[in-house]
């Protein structure tokens, strides 16, 4: 059910922004809509999600109406500060958003449109489990204004899917992709590598299957063992092996070779797109530090340097909104040092790179050594931008440590 919420200052019951916070209506704005429901809990997952037996009084059938109460509250809060502006991206994440009826997702999207407006060329993404996608579902979503579907493929190999507790059949991925494409949606597929028992050959098979689908976008994430998950307990008890760092590095290199060979280019350490217009604009907004409001239990938001996060459980989320209160559990305004660290951490991961001028003064002294070690591109650095090489992408955390001292 997700990691613990961060510590922070209390958030006001009315959700009002601090009086001294200056909201720039010219900054791009995104909306994230969290749907916290899953049929089963995957053993590796640390997201704020709930199966039917974990809801304890919360209801899926009224969830859309509940979330729309927060949308209305956000509209009032931003309008009071002159910060109301159209959304340039909307992202339905989870959980499994497509466990809800397509009509509920459409109503939630309509609420965002009526409250904030949505840019004519906005990117509107829905995450989906392959088993929950059908032609009728995607046609209804496309008619509502959805432009993109992110399909949780994870692997094409049955025993790897079983190790991850994924319940879909591999062949359903192709069915889902075909349905989404037929409805005119752009398609992204999500992969995970490094699962217990997964070989390099297994991973190559999954990559080949993904490329054969001709997606517009691929995300490929190394499996990370999160505390408190089923998988972490299995590893601690010695029932399954922990991920092998060297094998995961080999898998990443295979991903780069196969996806590039399939016509996709990396634009963030774990993401590849067929063209610039196929990149996830919503995720790029996170990496670039623009504004977004996260709706739903456990969702995080960011406006003009202020961050806040909602209560985690759907029942607590619903109860607060029923009382006319903000669901925010806490908030913070990171200091300059924290903001600089975050900028280096996020901006260095994307292909456009990080301006050297945004690196702390002490960190700039590390740039020649990073060039010599083959971790950042020398010509780009001399021109004023830190851009990771292939080796640097494998050791991105080490690069960040060097740049931040």
Task: Describe the structure concisely for a colleague.
38% of the residues lie in helices and 19% in strands. It has helices spanning 63-80, 102-115, 135-144, 158-163, 171-182, 200-212, 230-236, 245-261, 281-288, 314-322, 336-347, 361-364, 367-372, 378-382, 390-394, 396-404, and strands spanning 29-35, 87-94, 118-128, 148-154, 186-193, 217-222, 265-268, 271-273, 291-295, 300-303, 306-310, 328-332, 354-355, 385-386. The strands form three sheets. A nine-stranded mixed sheet has the order 7-8-6-5-4-3-2-1-9, sandwiched between helices. It has a three-stranded antiparallel sheet with strand order 10-11-12, with no helix packed on it. The chain has a two-stranded antiparallel ribbon with strand order 13-14.
